[in-house]
Every structure is written in C-alpha cells, then in structure tokens.
Amino acid sequence: xxxxxxxxxxxxxxxxxxxxxxxxxxxxxxxxxxxxxxxxxxxxxxxxxxxxxxxxxxxxxxxxxxxxxxxxxxxxxxxxxxxxxxxxxxxxxxxxxxxxxxxxxxxxxxxxxxxxxxxxxxxxxxxxxxxxxxxxxxxxxxxxxxxxxxxxxxxxxxxxxxxxxxxxxxxxxxxxxxxxxxxxxxxxxxxxxxxxxxxxxxxxxxxxxxxxxxxxxxxxxxxxxxxxxxxxxxxxxxxxxxxxxxxxxxxxxxxxxxxxxxxxxxxxxxxxxxxxxxxxxxxxxxxxxxxxxxxxxxxxxxxxxxxxxxxxxxxxxxxxxxxxxxxxxxx
Length: 331
Known about the structure:
The protein is of the alpha/beta class and about 325 residues long. It is built from 10 helices and 13 strands.
C-alpha cells in the first residue's frame, strides 16, 4: 500500500505566507481621534510617554504555531493526498460471436452419438458441445439465435455467458417452427452485429436441414454479412442422404461459408462436433484488449478536517485566555 499526491504542485504554496510577510507592505488603517490642546499636560499627569500614532499588534507564539499548522494542513489538502491500492489489469475481449442453432423439427432425430456412444437426440448433443464451447469463451461477448420456420434472438450480445448457455439449454425442438430458415437466421445475425463496435465478428451456424422457409436467400445473406465484416462458420449435422426436411444441404452450407470468409464442417457425433469447435478456435484466436488501473482512495478530507479542528480549538483557547485576562483586570 502506498500514498501519492494528485496535485503536488500545490506544495509550492507552503512558503506563500512568509513571502507576503517579507515583501508585502504593512497594512495601514486610518482611524478617527480626538485632538486636545492640553495633550502634554494630560500625558505628564498620567505618567505616559507620547509615541507615534501607529500600533503594531504582536501575536502570541501559540497563535503563530496554530496558524502555521492550519496553513500547512490546508496546503496538504489542496495537494490531494491519495491512498493507492494494488494495480488491477482488466482484459476485455475484442471479439463478438453469434451462435445460430437450428431447432427445427428434424433436430429431434436420434442419430448422433453422445459422449458415451449411445444414440441421442441431435439437439441434446448440440446443447452439450455448444454449451462447453460457450463456457470456453470467457471474456468474449456472445449472442444466441435460434431458428426454425422463423429466426429469433434468444440473447443479444452479453458477457454473461452462463445465461447464454442456460437459455440454450431451455430450448426445445420445434419451438421456433418445424421448418428451416437459414437465410433469415443470417439476416437476423447481421442486424444483431449492428450494435457491435469490435472488428472481429464471428458467426457459427449449425443446421441439419435444407433452407425451406427463408425470405432471404442464404447465399445472398452471407454476401451481405461478409460486406459488414462478419465471418460465418457453418456446421452441418444430419443425414446428407436423407430426404425432405431431414436432408442436410451440405452444398448450401459450403457456399455460405465460402461467401462469408469462413469454413464449412460436417459432424456425425458429439466428439466430431467438439473437434470442429476446437478447430474454429484455432483459426480464430481470441483477441483481447488490456486496460490497467490503480484504485485510489482520496484522503484530502483528513488534513482539511484537522485544520478546521485546530482552528476552532485555537479560537476557543484565545477566547478563554481573553476572558481570564479581563477578569483579572476587573479584580
């Protein structure tokens, strides 16, 4: 723990009273007086010796000490003493990431192997892997978009990644509709990124079906995203040999990634999905901005308070001394 002065130049004022006493002309004040023709007789009768009509008040030593001490405390207060705490370094992420997760009806299929190798629902496997991926983004800002027939922002950009994972875990298959709107999900992500002020913008799009209900073509949406500095990484899950809604359109996902300066991956189980997210991490290392600060506790109130207390105590002491002197003269 250390101490410092925020305005040390104020200490130059310590010598100001001495400079005033040394070089400033003395204060003179004219007062009225009575002139009498028999002044000499009065002085002789009273036994007083006539002197010049100037009175120089002499201060007591105690007054000088108290005045000097109060001035020193006031100047120290003006210098703003501070108590310095331990230096703190805060790292903030310079990357914003949007996770777009398909929750259409086809995500209910149980054809993906979980961590124990048993077949599990596609969405449950995705939740486990994506949830771990979200937790590893500590310091990044993340947003979650879920889509089916329509696309919805589940969470806007936030550093509270625990809430993002919790909301992801609360999603269920079909809650956004049975169809797949990949283009609308990308368009919604573009609007979400409009509030972002960082340079590194990343979107991870996970889908298991072909686009069937978008109002905007996924490829066109990807080109618009690329123009706004958004990189899109697409992940396909599901059976490419299936039919209808259950068939994943690998070619469309590849085109989206290529147009948006990203990469395409295909996962068949939870382990493969985890490796894909690790690869995305390797290709897009986290960028951070560091800011250091040192907490400061102002202490100027202490010398100011001490100066007030000493001044009041000095005035009270002088008043008591004057009262005692008056009583002695009266006796």
